[in-house]
Amino acid sequence: MEDFTEPGQGPPLHRHGREDESFYVVEGEFLFEVDGKQIHARAGEAVFAPKGTAHTFQNTGATRGRLLIMVHPAGLEDFFADIARASKGMAEPDLAVVVPIFHNHGLELLGPPIGARASR
């Protein structure tokens, strides 16, 4: 998958029960968190999050960043399609809607994105 992430943005802290996930930074600067370990990565660097690890990332640069994300085995694209369909028109994600979708795809939502945790 190709991901474009705006400055300060990133996904919530989560865990995959089935998939390994690898991130290759094409453009920008990112902070990754994998099982509590913080990893700074820039263009040309990669980060690996094995299945079962709690992980997230945040674009720490001043411009939009770009990642190539590899997931093994395939199938996570169905999760993103389901989330997009269910949250269409929502200003903020409704946990009562998204948490069951996470569970249906073998994912566990563990906490907010890095930026939301830092601003608490």
Please provide a brief summary of the model.
By secondary structure, the protein is an alpha+beta fold. The protein has helices at 76-86, 95-104, 114-118; strands spanning 2-5, 13-16, 20-27, 29-34, 37-42, 46-49, 54-59, 65-72, 107-111.
Give an account of the 3D structure:
- It is a single chain.
- With 120 residues, this protein is of the alpha+beta class.
- The protein has a single domain, classed as Jelly Rolls, CATH 2.60.120.
- Helices cover 22% and strands 42% of the residues.
- It has helices at 76-86, 95-104, 114-118, and strands at residues 2-5, 13-16, 20-27, 29-34, 37-42, 46-49, 54-59, 65-72, 107-111.
- Helix 1 packs antiparallel against helix 2.
- It starts with a strand and ends with a helix.
- The model has no long low-confidence stretch (mean pLDDT 95).
Look at the structure and give the mean pLDDT.
Answer: 95
Helix content: 10-25%
The biggest sheet amounts to: 5 strands, antiparallel
The CATH class? Mainly Beta
Q: CATH homologous superfamily, by name?
A: Jelly Rolls
Query: What is the total number of structural domains?
Result: 1
List key phrases describing it:
9 strands, four-stranded antiparallel sheet, globular, five-stranded antiparallel sheet, about 20% helix, Jelly Rolls, alpha+beta, about 120 residues
